[in-house]
Amino acid sequence: MTLLVHDVTLTYPDGDTRLTALDAVALEVPAGTLTAVIGPSGSGKSSLLAVAATLVTPDSGRVVVAGRDTAGLSAAEKSALRREKIGIVFQQPNLPASLTAAEQLQVMAHLSGRPARALRRRALELLDAVGLADKADKRPHQLSGGQRQRVNIARALMNDPAVLLVDEPTSALDHERGAAVLDLLVTLTRERSTATVLVTHDRAHLERMDRTATMADGRLAQSPQAAPAP
Protein backbone atom coordinates (compact mmCIF):
# COMPACT_ATOMS: atom_id res chain seq x y z
CA MET A 1 0.00 0.00 0.00
CA THR A 2 1.14 3.53 -0.67
CA LEU A 3 0.74 7.15 0.31
CA LEU A 4 -0.26 9.34 -2.63
CA VAL A 5 -0.36 13.13 -2.50
CA HIS A 6 -1.57 14.42 -5.86
CA ASP A 7 -1.48 18.07 -6.98
CA VAL A 8 -2.18 19.38 -3.47
CA THR A 9 -2.46 23.10 -2.84
CA LEU A 10 -2.94 24.55 0.64
CA THR A 11 -3.35 28.22 1.53
CA TYR A 12 -3.83 30.10 4.78
CA PRO A 13 -5.40 33.53 5.43
CA ASP A 14 -2.78 36.30 5.59
CA GLY A 15 -4.44 39.64 6.14
CA ASP A 16 -6.41 40.52 3.01
CA THR A 17 -4.71 37.81 0.98
CA ARG A 18 -3.81 34.14 1.36
CA LEU A 19 -0.40 32.62 1.95
CA THR A 20 0.43 29.53 -0.11
CA ALA A 21 1.88 26.78 2.09
CA LEU A 22 1.76 23.99 -0.52
CA ASP A 23 1.79 24.71 -4.24
CA ALA A 24 0.61 21.82 -6.46
CA VAL A 25 2.61 19.29 -4.45
CA ALA A 26 2.81 15.69 -5.68
CA LEU A 27 4.40 12.80 -3.79
CA GLU A 28 4.07 9.03 -3.99
CA VAL A 29 5.60 6.79 -1.33
CA PRO A 30 5.33 3.03 -1.92
CA ALA A 31 5.07 0.55 0.92
CA GLY A 32 8.41 -0.47 2.40
CA THR A 33 10.19 2.72 1.31
CA LEU A 34 11.29 5.87 3.11
CA THR A 35 11.20 9.34 1.58
CA ALA A 36 13.07 12.14 3.36
CA VAL A 37 11.71 15.67 2.99
CA ILE A 38 14.24 18.43 3.56
CA GLY A 39 14.14 22.20 3.20
CA PRO A 40 14.42 25.43 5.21
CA SER A 41 12.05 26.37 8.02
CA GLY A 42 8.79 27.75 6.65
CA SER A 43 9.14 25.96 3.32
CA GLY A 44 6.01 23.82 3.81
CA LYS A 45 7.38 20.57 5.26
CA SER A 46 5.11 20.54 8.31
CA SER A 47 2.12 21.51 6.17
CA LEU A 48 2.83 18.53 3.94
CA LEU A 49 2.84 16.17 6.92
CA ALA A 50 -0.37 17.70 8.29
CA VAL A 51 -2.15 17.21 4.96
CA ALA A 52 -0.81 13.66 4.55
CA ALA A 53 -2.02 12.87 8.07
CA THR A 54 -5.51 14.21 7.22
CA LEU A 55 -5.15 16.72 10.05
CA VAL A 56 -5.55 19.61 7.57
CA THR A 57 -7.79 19.62 4.48
CA PRO A 58 -6.10 21.10 1.39
CA ASP A 59 -7.73 23.68 -0.87
CA SER A 60 -7.41 21.29 -3.80
CA GLY A 61 -5.81 18.01 -4.79
CA ARG A 62 -6.07 14.47 -3.43
CA VAL A 63 -4.54 12.48 -0.60
CA VAL A 64 -4.87 8.70 -0.88
CA VAL A 65 -3.90 6.58 2.13
CA ALA A 66 -3.56 2.83 1.62
CA GLY A 67 -5.88 2.95 -1.37
CA ARG A 68 -8.51 5.17 0.27
CA ASP A 69 -9.15 8.62 -1.15
CA THR A 70 -9.59 10.98 1.80
CA ALA A 71 -11.51 13.64 -0.15
CA GLY A 72 -15.00 14.04 1.23
CA LEU A 73 -14.41 12.03 4.40
CA SER A 74 -16.09 13.36 7.53
CA ALA A 75 -14.07 14.35 10.57
CA ALA A 76 -15.04 11.09 12.26
CA GLU A 77 -14.02 9.05 9.21
CA LYS A 78 -10.66 10.82 9.05
CA SER A 79 -10.12 10.17 12.75
CA ALA A 80 -10.83 6.47 12.21
CA LEU A 81 -8.47 6.39 9.22
CA ARG A 82 -5.67 7.94 11.29
CA ARG A 83 -6.30 5.46 14.08
CA GLU A 84 -6.23 2.45 11.75
CA LYS A 85 -3.83 3.37 8.93
CA ILE A 86 -1.57 6.28 9.91
CA GLY A 87 1.22 6.42 12.47
CA ILE A 88 2.54 9.86 13.45
CA VAL A 89 5.88 10.43 15.18
CA PHE A 90 5.93 13.98 16.50
CA GLN A 91 9.10 16.01 16.96
CA GLN A 92 8.75 15.85 20.75
CA PRO A 93 7.69 12.51 22.27
CA ASN A 94 5.21 14.09 24.74
CA LEU A 95 5.02 10.95 26.84
CA PRO A 96 2.69 11.19 29.89
CA ALA A 97 4.95 11.16 32.94
CA SER A 98 2.81 8.72 34.92
CA LEU A 99 2.79 5.93 32.31
CA THR A 100 5.41 3.25 31.75
CA ALA A 101 6.86 2.67 28.28
CA ALA A 102 4.48 -0.24 27.69
CA GLU A 103 1.48 1.74 28.93
CA GLN A 104 2.31 4.60 26.51
CA LEU A 105 1.73 2.16 23.66
CA GLN A 106 -1.30 0.45 25.19
CA VAL A 107 -3.12 3.75 25.67
CA MET A 108 -2.72 4.51 21.95
CA ALA A 109 -4.63 1.36 21.02
CA HIS A 110 -7.29 1.23 23.71
CA LEU A 111 -10.03 2.20 21.24
CA SER A 112 -9.30 -0.84 19.07
CA GLY A 113 -11.38 -3.10 21.31
CA ARG A 114 -8.63 -5.67 21.68
CA PRO A 115 -8.28 -7.36 25.08
CA ALA A 116 -5.83 -5.76 27.51
CA ARG A 117 -3.62 -8.84 27.47
CA ALA A 118 -3.32 -8.71 23.68
CA LEU A 119 -2.45 -5.01 23.82
CA ARG A 120 0.23 -5.70 26.40
CA ARG A 121 1.69 -8.43 24.17
CA ARG A 122 1.72 -6.09 21.18
CA ALA A 123 3.34 -3.30 23.20
CA LEU A 124 6.11 -5.59 24.43
CA GLU A 125 6.73 -6.88 20.90
CA LEU A 126 7.17 -3.34 19.58
CA LEU A 127 9.39 -2.25 22.45
CA ASP A 128 11.56 -5.25 21.68
CA ALA A 129 11.63 -4.21 18.01
CA VAL A 130 13.01 -0.78 18.94
CA GLY A 131 15.54 -2.21 21.37
CA LEU A 132 13.71 -1.41 24.60
CA ALA A 133 12.55 -4.83 25.77
CA ASP A 134 14.18 -4.23 29.15
CA LYS A 135 12.60 -0.76 29.56
CA ALA A 136 8.92 -1.72 29.34
CA ASP A 137 8.18 -0.76 32.94
CA LYS A 138 10.28 2.41 33.02
CA ARG A 139 8.67 5.85 33.09
CA PRO A 140 9.83 8.73 30.87
CA HIS A 141 12.10 10.30 33.51
CA GLN A 142 13.96 7.00 33.71
CA LEU A 143 14.72 6.98 29.97
CA SER A 144 17.28 8.88 27.91
CA GLY A 145 16.23 11.25 25.13
CA GLY A 146 16.99 8.62 22.51
CA GLN A 147 15.03 5.99 24.40
CA ARG A 148 12.03 8.31 24.73
CA GLN A 149 12.09 8.90 20.98
CA ARG A 150 12.18 5.12 20.42
CA VAL A 151 9.07 4.78 22.60
CA ASN A 152 7.51 7.52 20.48
CA ILE A 153 8.24 5.51 17.31
CA ALA A 154 6.95 2.26 18.81
CA ARG A 155 3.78 4.05 19.90
CA ALA A 156 3.15 5.21 16.32
CA LEU A 157 3.40 1.59 15.14
CA MET A 158 0.98 0.19 17.72
CA ASN A 159 -1.93 -0.12 15.28
CA ASP A 160 0.24 -1.51 12.45
CA PRO A 161 -0.17 1.56 10.21
CA ALA A 162 0.23 1.51 6.44
CA VAL A 163 1.66 5.05 6.46
CA LEU A 164 4.24 6.40 8.92
CA LEU A 165 4.78 10.18 9.13
CA VAL A 166 7.82 11.34 11.09
CA ASP A 167 8.54 14.96 12.03
CA GLU A 168 12.17 15.85 12.90
CA PRO A 169 12.79 12.84 15.18
CA THR A 170 16.45 13.72 15.79
CA SER A 171 16.14 17.44 16.51
CA ALA A 172 16.67 17.05 20.27
CA LEU A 173 19.27 14.27 20.03
CA ASP A 174 23.04 14.28 19.67
CA HIS A 175 24.61 12.92 16.49
CA GLU A 176 25.11 9.37 17.76
CA ARG A 177 21.58 8.98 19.16
CA GLY A 178 20.10 10.68 16.12
CA ALA A 179 21.89 8.27 13.78
CA ALA A 180 20.57 5.32 15.81
CA VAL A 181 16.99 6.62 15.51
CA LEU A 182 17.33 7.07 11.73
CA ASP A 183 18.77 3.57 11.40
CA LEU A 184 15.80 2.26 13.35
CA LEU A 185 13.30 4.04 11.11
CA VAL A 186 14.92 2.60 7.98
CA THR A 187 14.84 -0.90 9.46
CA LEU A 188 11.24 -0.68 10.65
CA THR A 189 10.08 0.72 7.30
CA ARG A 190 11.53 -2.30 5.51
CA GLU A 191 10.39 -4.89 8.05
CA ARG A 192 6.85 -3.56 8.47
CA SER A 193 6.29 -2.38 4.90
CA THR A 194 5.19 1.11 5.86
CA ALA A 195 5.14 4.01 3.43
CA THR A 196 7.30 6.37 5.49
CA VAL A 197 7.78 10.12 5.11
CA LEU A 198 10.54 11.65 7.25
CA VAL A 199 10.87 15.42 7.64
CA THR A 200 14.43 16.13 8.72
CA HIS A 201 17.19 18.74 8.84
CA ASP A 202 19.81 16.00 9.25
CA ARG A 203 21.48 15.53 5.86
CA ALA A 204 24.16 13.17 7.14
CA HIS A 205 22.16 10.01 6.48
CA LEU A 206 20.19 10.87 3.36
CA GLU A 207 21.99 8.16 1.42
CA ARG A 208 20.05 5.64 3.51
CA MET A 209 16.74 6.92 2.18
CA ASP A 210 14.99 5.56 -0.90
CA ARG A 211 14.25 9.06 -2.11
CA THR A 212 14.88 12.64 -1.02
CA ALA A 213 12.46 15.48 -1.74
CA THR A 214 13.26 19.15 -1.20
CA MET A 215 10.63 21.71 -0.16
CA ALA A 216 11.12 25.36 -1.11
CA ASP A 217 8.40 28.02 -0.99
CA GLY A 218 5.67 25.40 -0.92
CA ARG A 219 6.96 23.48 -3.93
CA LEU A 220 8.37 19.96 -3.82
CA ALA A 221 11.24 18.73 -6.00
CA GLN A 222 12.18 15.04 -5.83
CA SER A 223 15.47 13.32 -6.51
CA PRO A 224 15.51 10.21 -8.70
CA GLN A 225 14.52 7.09 -6.85
CA ALA A 226 17.48 5.26 -5.37
CA ALA A 227 18.38 1.85 -6.69
CA PRO A 228 17.15 -0.98 -4.46
CA ALA A 229 19.65 -2.31 -1.97
CA PRO A 230 21.29 -5.58 -3.05
TrEMBL record:
Pfam families named among the record's database cross-references: ABC_tran
Any coiled-coil regions, as ranges: none
InterPro entries to which the protein is assigned, alphabetical: AAA+_ATPase (IPR003593), ABC_transporter-like_ATP-bd (IPR003439), ABC_transporter-like_CS (IPR017871), ABC_transpr_LolD-like (IPR015854), MacB-like_ATP-bd (IPR017911), P-loop_NTPase (IPR027417)
Domain ABC transporter span(s) in chain numbering: 3-230
Name of the protein in its database record: ABC transporter ATP-binding protein
SMART domains assigned: AAA
PROSITE patterns linked: ABC_TRANSPORTER_1, ABC_TRANSPORTER_2
UniProt GO molecular function: ATP binding; ATP hydrolysis activity; transmembrane transporter activity
Annotated keywords: ATP-binding, Nucleotide-binding, Transport
Superkingdom of source: Bacteria
GO terms under cellular component: plasma membrane
PANTHER family: ABC TRANSPORTER RELATED, IMPORT ATP-BINDING PROTEIN
